[in-house]
Every structure is written in structure tokens, then in C-alpha cells.
Amino acid sequence: MCDIATSYQVTGMTCGSCATKVTTAVAKVAGVTGTAVDVANSTVIVSGHVDDAAISAAIADAGYAATRV
């Protein structure tokens, strides 16, 4: 089974600390196998078989808003 990569625009993620919070929150979601955060573009790419609502909720719990792109 291949992982699926999904991109999210994260509002309010402006620094390395923010990126760490988002990465930590997303990594706890069941099915996530990897993340790649780009602070300059405020995006996170999530690899795995995951539910969009679960990813958005995890990012919201970390204090940010996310929209799938």
C-alpha cells in the first residue's frame, strides 16, 4: 500500500516553533507516516492514509487553522 501525500495551508504558522507544534500534533493522528513543513509558504504535507477532518482538528488543537490545498 502506498502512502498518499496531502497538502494543507496552515494559517498563523510563522516560525520554527510553530512548525514543531504542527508537526507534533499531526504526527499523533492515526495513519500519519510522515510530515514535511514549509514555514515560508505556511504549508504542511502529510503522508499516510488519514482523514482530512482529523488532520484539521489536530492542527486546530495546536492553535492554528488548516485548509486542504
Question: Care to describe what's here?
Answer:
It is a single chain. With 69 residues, this protein is of the alpha+beta class. It has a single domain, classed as Alpha-Beta Plaits. 32% of the residues lie in helices and 36% in strands. It contains two helices and four strands. The protein has a four-stranded antiparallel β-sheet with strand order 2-3-1-4, covered by helices on one side. Helix 1 crosses helix 2. It is globular. The protein starts with a strand and ends with a strand. The model has no long low-confidence stretch (mean pLDDT 94).
Number of H- or I-type helical stretches:
2
Overall geometric form: globular
Q: Gyration radius, to the nearest Å?
A: 11 Å
List segments where confidence is low: pLDDT < 50 over at least 5 consecutive residues: none
Number of strands: 4
- Structural class based on helices, strands and sheet pairing: alpha+beta
- Percentage of residues in DSSP E strands: 35-45%
What CATH architecture would you give?
Answer: 2-Layer Sandwich
CATH third-tier fold name: Alpha-Beta Plaits
Ends distance: 23 Å
How many structural domains? 1
CATH C-level name: Alpha Beta
**Strand order across the largest sheet:** 2-3-1-4
Helix percent reads 25-40%
Average pLDDT: 94
What is the makeup of the main sheet? 4 strands, antiparallel
Give the helices and strands as they follow along the chain: EHEEHE
